[in-house]
Amino acid sequence: MLILVINSGSSSLKFQLIDSEKKQMLVKGLCERIGIEEPFFDYENGGCSIHEPRQMDTHKDAVHILLETLLDPECGVIGSLDEIAAVGHRVVHGGPHFSHPALVTEETKEAILKSSGWCPLHNQANLTGIEVLEKAMPGVPQVAVFDTAFHQTMPPEAYMYGIPYEYFEKFDMRRYGFHGTSHEFVTRRAAEMTKHDPASFRLITCHLGNGSFFAAIKGGRCLDTSMGLTPLEGIMMGTRCGSIDPAIPPFIGKLGNCTPDEVDDILNKKSGMLGISGVSMDFRDIQAAAAEGNERARLAVKMFCYQAIKIIGSYIAALGGLDTLVFTAGVGENDEMIRKSICDGLAYSGIEIDQERNLIRRKEAILSTEDSAVEVFVIPTNEELSIAVQTAEVLKKTDA
Ligand code: AMP
């Protein structure tokens, strides 16, 4: 079944055409700088790649270009749009309403707008993508797959903040978690790889990349996750500060005479690995600087590993033990030093990894030794494939 996966941002539109049964990506592309200067179209289909400026004033223009390219006799992969069974859309925020992907109807669209909660710009952009595709491909089912849905199984003691209750009642202010499609993808694969009972195994997923986040999962259900009301909470990330003393933002505001938006910018874009190292937000640059003796780069890496060990330790307590630990995303799939530091810090739990196996990069692998009390896997994440598979499941359930 061919599924077109769309990730629509305010000025960009990423897409992939995926065979959900073969779990295979056929083509992928990106329309960038829609409606602003120097719009650009990127497309890859094996031997046929396109990287060129293209006029795109609106998302409608971008969708027109992408559909035309899919049908192109030279670079395309399909003979007719009828070959596409459905479109799966990434939607960032499902609010408290969506715990599963949903077929797009007028009610779903209204609920997406209402659920935009604390990411209104993201949801509006996602909705634009849905509406443009609905018009471009009338009659083709559209499915919304929510970043927050996977975490909706968290119990209230995990998702509530210790602030006056009225903020929850009036404004839905609570923890939601993000990138549920990544956790969902690696959880499904870990359930296939584990030697424990997939219905009850205790799993911690570590998505370590530019954005980093963890989830504590029991029998496939999320019990806790490190991102919160927004993606700022949790471990320090490429440019995000992660969890800090909540008194710091007003102090930064007063010290620098900054507006709340400027403080938000400092915490989201100038902090984390970049803010501490002063080198880069990119782990490869930071590791290279650390290897050359840059003390701040070393400190950033040490802080990252220490925070990871603390979060994972707290999740081991929440789960009452641990059967399986999974590393994924750019750093989790590639950086053997970070994986080793984290696993060494968790040795008390019986985790033991094989140093040879730990050299693996960008490949699925079992890192743990035969004697390790905890399985340790590397599972490359694939959020687009997760969206395609979930979209196909919705179609099957609804007979759309
Ligand atoms: P992601 O957000 O999943 O794309 O991950 C991006 C992060 O992964 C960047 O900080 C990269 O430096 C890091 N990364 C990618 N490849 C490697 C590598 N081979 N070794 C270390 N870090 C890597």
Give a quick precis of the structure.
This protein has 400 residues and is of the alpha/beta class. The protein has helices spanning 59-71, 106-114, 120-136, 156-159, 166-171, 180-193, 248-256, 260-269, 272-277, 283-291, 295-319, 329-334, 336-345, 383-398, and strands at residues 2-8, 13-19, 24-32, 40-45, 48-53, 84-91, 102-103, 142-146, 202-208, 212-218, 221-225, 324-328, 365-366, 375-378. The protein starts with a strand and ends with a helix.
Structural commentary:
The protein has an eight-stranded mixed sheet with strand order 5-4-3-2-1-6-8-7, with helices on both faces. A six-stranded mixed sheet has the order 11-10-9-12-14-13, sandwiched between helices. The chain has 400 residues and is an alpha/beta fold. It has two domains: 145 residues, ATPase, nucleotide binding domain (Nucleotidyltransferase, domain 5, 2-Layer Sandwich), CATH 3.30.420; 188 residues, Nucleotidyltransferase, domain 5 (2-Layer Sandwich), CATH 3.30.420. It contains 14 helices and 14 strands. The protein is 38% helix and 20% strand. It is globular. Adenosine monophosphate (AMP) binds next to helix 10 and helix 12.
* Percentage beta strand: 15-25%
Question: Going by CATH, what is the homologous superfamily of the largest domain?
Answer: ATPase, nucleotide binding domain
Amount of helix = 25-40%
CATH topology of the largest domain: Nucleotidyltransferase, domain 5
- Give the CATH level 1 class of the largest domain: Alpha Beta
**Beta-strand segment tally:** 14
Question: What is the strand and helix layout of this fold?
Answer:
Elements: E1 2-8, E2 13-19, E3 24-32, E4 40-45, E5 48-53, H1 59-71, E6 84-91, E7 102-103, H2 106-114, H3 120-136, E8 142-146, H4 156-159, H5 166-171, H6 180-193, E9 202-208, E10 212-218, E11 221-225, H7 248-256, H8 260-269, H9 272-277, H10 283-291, H11 295-319, E12 324-328, H12 329-334, H13 336-345, E13 365-366, E14 375-378, H14 383-398
Parallel strand pairs: 1-6, 6-8, 9-12, 12-14
Antiparallel strand pairs: 1-2, 2-3, 3-4, 4-5, 7-8, 9-10, 10-11, 13-14
Helix pairs in contact: 1-3, 6-14, 7-8, 10-11, 11-13
